[in-house]
Design goal:
Belongs to the tRNA nucleotidyltransferase/poly(A) polymerase family. Pfam families: PolyA_pol. There is one protein chain. The protein has a single domain (2-69, 80-145), classed as Beta Polymerase, domain 2 (2-Layer Sandwich). 30% of the residues lie in helices and 26% in strands. The chain has three helices and eight strands. Strands 1-8-7-2 form a four-stranded antiparallel beta sheet. A two-stranded antiparallel ribbon has the order 3-4. The protein has a two-stranded antiparallel sheet with strand order 5-6. A hairpin with a 6-residue loop joins strand 5 and strand 6. The protein is globular and about 50 Å long.
């Protein structure tokens, strides 16, 4: 596992993470919490954009403008199977809590037929886009790259 970097966490995000850490510490102290997917990707894209603009400024070039494009909802009839998800709102943020997972495919198909519980590494390697395999470890405050390709 490669530790990538620390990322900026807003006060509101810190409140959410602290609440989750306290709750898990109370009922399941061995559980490790991580944030995966879009939030970590977006935070790293913001860092990449800032770094790129810093480089461009140092070279006397114009900065680039950018933003993250939100994903589109799945199309009707093309939903893949999922594990249970807890959806909630904490401090004005929508939060989804899910288990680590891996997809099981039929031979020759790209559509999963089953979703099963998995290890942290299996979850990281199943992700289609390598930057989505980055995890933010709430306990350490570090971004983790289990694939080495995030």
């Amino acid at each position: 596992m490669t530790t990538v970097q620390r990322i900026h966490v807003t006060e509101n995000e810190r409140q959410i993470f602290d609440l989750l850490l306290r709750a898990v510490g109370n009922f399941s102290p061995k559980t490790k919490l991580r944030v995966a997917g879009g939030w970590v990707r977006d935070k790293n894209i913001e860092c990449l954009l800032l770094s790129l603009n810093g480089y461009l400024r140092s070279q006397g070039e114009d900065e680039v403008q950018g933003h993250v494009i939100e994903s589109k909802p799945a199309q009707e009839g093309k939903q893949k199977p999922t594990l249970e998800t807890v959806k909630m709102s904490l401090y004005n943020h929508s939060i989804d809590l899910v288990h680590l997972r891996r997809d099981v495919y039929a031979r020759g198909s790209r559509i999963p037929v089953k979703v099963v519980f998995a290890s942290l590494e299996e979850d990281a390697f199943r992700r289609a886009l390598t930057i989505n395999s980055l995890f933010y470890n709430i306990h350490t405050g570090l971004v983790e790259d289990l694939t080495g390709r995030g």
